[in-house]
Amino acid sequence: MLSTIMRHQWQQALRDQRVRWLAIALILAGLAALLSGLARQQRLSAERAEAIRADAEAWSRQGVVDPHGAAHFGRTAFKPISLLSALDPGLLDHIGSLVRLEAHKQNVASGRPSDAGTALTAFVPFTAASALQIFAPVLIILTGFGVFSGEAARQILRLELAAGIPPRVLLMGRFLALGGGVAGVLGLFGLAGAVGLWLTDAPAPDFARLGLLLVGYGAYLLTFLALTLGISALCVSARPALAGLLAFWLATVLLVPRIGPSLSAQVYPVPSVPVFANQVSESIDDGLDGHDPRHTRMDRLRARAMAQYGVTRIEDLPVNFGGLALEYGEAATTRAYQQHFDALFTNYERQSRLLQALSPLSPRLPLQGWSAGLAETDFAAHRAFLQDAEQYRYAFVQALNQAVVRSTPGQPRAAVRVADITAEVDRAAGHSVTLGETWRRQWSNGVLLLTWLGFSVGFALWAAGRLHRLS
Amino acid sequence: MLFAEKLHKRYGSTVALHALDLSVAPGELYALLGPNGAGKTTTINCFLGFLAPDGGRVTIDGLDVGQHPLETKQRLAYIPEQVNLYGHFSAAENLAYFAQLGGHHYAPAELRELLAAVGLQPEAHERRVSGFSKGMRQKVGIAIALAKRAKALLLDEPTSGLDPSASHEFSQLLARLRGQGVAILMATHDLFRAKEDATRVGIMRRGTLVRELSAGEIRGTDLERLYLEAMRA
Amino acid sequence: MNALLTVVRHELRRLVRDRATPVLALLFAAICVYAAWNGQRWAGQRGEALRQIGIDLQESRDDSRARAAAAAAAQPGRTFSQGSVSASVWYQPTLPLRPLAPLAIGQADGYPFDVRFHPVSPRTLFAPREASLSNPAALAAGSFDLAFVIVYLLPVFLLALTYDLWIGERDRGTARLLLAQPVPPQVLFAGKAIALGGTVLLGLAALVGLALLTFGGAGGVSGPALAALGGTVLLYGAFWVAVALAVNVWVRHAAGAALACGAIWLGVTALLPALLTAAVDFTHPAPSSAAYSNRLREVELERQDVRRQQAPPARSTAEREDRNAALRRTLTQVAEDMAAYAPVRDAFRSREHARRNLAHDLRFASPATAVQDSLERLAGTDAARAVAFQEQAWDFAQGLRAHVEAHLTEAPPEDLPQLYAGVSVFRFTEPPATEVREALAANAAALLSFLIALGTVIGSGIQRTRLVDEDAP
Fold this sequence. Notes:
The structure holds 3 protein chains of 3 kinds.
Chain A: H1 2-15, H2 17-61, E1 64-65, H3 67-73, E2 75-78, E3 98-102, E4 105-106, H4 128-144, H5 151-162, H6 167-199, H7 204-234, H8 238-267, H9 273-286, H10 294-309, H11 321-357, H12 364-374, H13 379-406, E5 416-417, H14 418-423, H15 435-465, H16 467-470
Antiparallel strand pairs in A: 1-5, 2-3, 3-4
Helix pairs in contact in A: 1-6, 2-4, 2-6, 3-13, 4-7, 4-8, 6-7, 6-15, 7-8, 7-12, 7-15, 8-11, 9-11, 10-11, 11-13, 12-15
Chain B: E1 2-11, E2 14-24, E3 29-33, H1 40-48, E4 55-60, E5 63-64, H2 69-74, E6 76-79, H3 91-101, H4 108-117, H5 134-147, E7 152-156, H6 164-179, E8 183-187, H7 191-197, E9 200-205, E10 208-213, H8 215-220, H9 223-232
Helix pairs in contact in B: 3-4, 3-5, 4-5
Chain C: H1 2-17, H2 20-74, E1 80-81, H3 82-88, H4 136-141, H5 146-162, H6 167-172, H7 175-179, H8 185-214, H9 223-250, H10 254-283, H11 289-309, H12 317-321, H13 323-362, H14 367-379, H15 383-406, E2 410-411, H16 416-421, H17 433-464
Antiparallel strand pairs in C: 1-2
């Protein structure tokens, strides 16, 4: 019986010209977006590889120079672009793609793709993710709103109920039939994604990420399907069913995901760039607690160094005190930067937790987190990159400072071949968010998505129970 | 007053009207009988200008409907099978609106008179029509037609769904209008009302008028038998 | 005319009696208030940052003056020149806010609003800078300002109240009775458009304006700017009313009309802009900032090499005492550095420019993007103004060196206060009003042509299509 209902529903959905063409258009547009996303990923990765090479070349071309001067010349870290960003670019357009690594300073990532835009930039770009997050629910609503509502559907329903088919079976049959369509569409995206991953020799975890990603989208779209069928069962006429569903879509897919971040940014505000820079430089000048000015720190360093080497005059130190001061200063400024960046990123974390708390208002919120998290295009991935970059910056700057420490005391700083000194410093791979870490961050969003699905299926079954009364 | 000549209308390959000749003089009530799909409503739609005929001519008071849409509508009142009104508005407000569109401004007292004349209870005049029964809405529809003081009246199944006494009141009203010289064209299934009220009867089948009966002929015959014969022919 | 008035009056009364109207109006008002407040909060933060920059700059100048005074006290006979003072302080040109800034955050987060540099090491002018530390998640979601409300939500509310403007009559069954009256259908449609579209639009636009003026803190806005804003909103709204009319002429059922309106809304506000963005990305991808950063560093290395090869000139005693000569030499060096960097910068910027120009031209393809552009221009958060700021800051830095070289006459330490007061100040020159007006007019013309096209569709539709359902087969 269930399979009869499913088959029938399938035929109906396929015969609906409107739905058929919209579905084809959506799938084609989504796949085109996926392809162009992949092309972009490849282009950016090639650009990045070239940039890394050019940066290394410039670094070694310095030759024999003053090590501290070289630390100021600095290096650049370039953010890796994950393959799955082709599916969901997430925050990629709005976070910097490179960080300048230099002495005394921990820079903010710059080179955001959304920089230097125009009025067009204010609009959401079309990606495979936006096709599935924004447009696919509309298609589901259009396909499903008239399944039980509307004069013709009610007439058929009366016949079906009179034939003794339980209403819940009627609903589940239709849910499974249309759900099969949803699975088919996601399967197409999955297939295209997997081929893309395979062609680019992606590591195994990326396939797992793709799979999990699609499971999330499946839960999300089935949520919309169940809600649509439920509303359709509750509404006798088709018009309020469609109006209600479209209003729900507008609120949960467009409004809440837009108001949410702006609201949470108000609850946990972040400083502007100049204010932040000011805070950092105050911490550097006056110590982290504000009561340890730079000159007393320097006096302490002098005393400690003289005690360590058992001398009474700085000139008698067997090492270059200038180098010691640079080393010490670097550690101090790094602590100050770290403290303020930690505070800033903690605020981002708080904002995203608040946003997650708004999930009962919109299933798209947990999906956005889940999708970008798995595609490694969320802030967690960016922060991992920043940490790697900072670790490297600190290590190479201190290695250069060590070279100053070793140079002849009392003499002007000797020039050294900097490339040799920093060759020893490990350069972190960059791709450091493991699947396990992503899972630890994202499982709660997964649970939220499944909760939405459970709730909506429950609602649909409850609504089906009322079909008897309303038909 | 109402005049159709060699009227043709096709919907795709289906012929809805075929060389239909019809005229209704002032003071006459012409009942158009026929099964569903015979072309009764299509005829009325042509008089209303809702449909442009594929051939032939429709005139009202000598004016061609296609060429003078507004002038002919000025001379025409129309009561559809289902009188649908604005639910948020009272009977009097609905009446006032349609009357104004027809070019007539009535004082509140005049509106009440019109509504009373069609038999709507005074307490219903200021009530929103969303709670009205079909019969009550039909009465407001008649009041709208009366308010237009038109020379011709088109009725599309006006008595379907009315109870016998409302139907009777309606007949009396039609007789009064006829007495005032209004030409009335009524499409109906109701053989009894046709026999009672009509001065002429036309029986339609597949877009053509297969039989026309004058007032005298109607009185003396068994209309039902004639109708069934016409259908079998 | 009488009939038109009758229809308008009737439709207004229906609107008032519709239970959905107050609910929608309240909802829209609440959204407007939040958006205006949000925009105001953003503008407040930006204003505070600008103020902070001013304070810090003044503090650093005061420090510099104190140091100079101390140096003068330690070295009797030490003199100063306007040029040497001007060369020793920091500069930080900023892009001020315009009064309507709370209307649209626009591109304000995508362009730097300040640039800090020193006349003898102005390399920072090249460095890509973050304009904000906002959570990227908030940036990606897009700002919830009045521009968003106008571009996206105003049409939704308009369509919600007008999507079945004629089809409602069909569904209700009043259409036949209406068309049986001696009133041309054009008058019925016009009456409905005026009453529903016009009134709803005016009401919604008034809510936007009210929210902007009361909660948006945009009190000091000039009349013409407000008029331009009003005109833009009304023209855009009229476009959507025309969409509703066209749908009502061509579609036969309420569900179909809702669908068509929704599809057009989605197409105009989401799909079309996304396609335009894709077109820009395809033909003019964003120039690689990684490559740019590397090119700059290559030039930096080249300059280092050049300086190392130029053996430091043997300094005569007289020259050693002449600080001005050293300053001149540094300035020359900086000028050479800048000249070496300039081609790299120009190449990067010209690619950015080409990309921006294309995007700018394509905005006409969708009413939504054209309106967004107008709103950003009115708010002063548009790309053109931000780019003008960058160019002016660049020119200012160039001019500064000439200023230093031209003012090297020595003065006693007593003149230090005047010398510090004489330091050049950057003042942003707003792009000429005609430029903004032209852009607004071009956008308005685009909207108007959409409106005319829709008008034609509606006009021919009213004449050609059947406005009632015939009951016959």
